[in-house]
Specification:
Elements lengths: L7 H7 L5 H15 L4 H8 L4 H13 L6 H10 L2 H13 L4 H12 L4 H14 L2 H12 L7 H13 L4
Helix pairs in contact: 1-2, 2-4, 4-6, 5-6, 6-8, 8-9, 8-10, 9-10
């Protein structure tokens, strides 16, 4: 191996660096060079306060899915807005995590969900394909008006087909 390439333990150590740009870089290099993540490092990166580091850790988890992080993803979905919540929703749908439905309903009641989160959660509900998820999708379908964004309609229809709901 080329001595100029960072070894896995050095990159793992850099995931603790005080600068977020270094933590993000180390996460990206770990994913690119070494594949399956070190569980301790990934858990730490999923707790990172910097959104860019956290998004990089979620990409890592998308490339190397590990259902043992469902609780962490559910917590992130409930507490982090925007792109982070959207990626978490997609992963939770992939992992068939039914607790996503309750977390989604809580966000809807609190009116803290944005468009990207909503579309990603709808896609995840289609992947869940449980009776409760299908009922939620049908409920959203019944609320569609002529003012509804076409992207949301398309996403909803795709999720319904994915859930084998005609």
């Amino acid at each position: 191996m080329n001595p100029r390439i960072w070894n896995q333990s050095d990159l793992t150590r850099l995931t603790r660096h005080h600068m977020s740009v270094v933590r993000r870089w180390a996460c990206k290099r770990l994913r690119t060079l070494y594949g399956k993540p070190d569980p301790e490092a990934l858990e730490r990166l999923l707790q990172d306060k910097d959104i860019e580091v956290l998004l990089e850790a979620l990409k890592y988890l998308e490339d190397y899915p590990e259902p043992k992080y469902k609780d962490t993803l559910l917590k992130l979905y409930g507490t982090r807005p925007g792109r982070v919540a959207a990626r978490c929703a997609l992963l939770l749908g992939q992992f068939k995590e039914e607790r996503l439905i309750g977390a989604y309903e809580k966000k809807i009641r609190a009116k803290t969900i944005d468009f990207n989160e909503m579309t990603s959660t709808i896609i995840a509900m289609g992947k869940l394909a449980t009776d409760q998820a299908k009922a939620l999708l049908r409920g959203i379908l019944s609320e569609i008006t002529e003012d509804t964004d076409p992207i949301l309609i398309h996403t909803l229809i795709r999720a319904l087909f994915g859930a084998k709901e005609d």
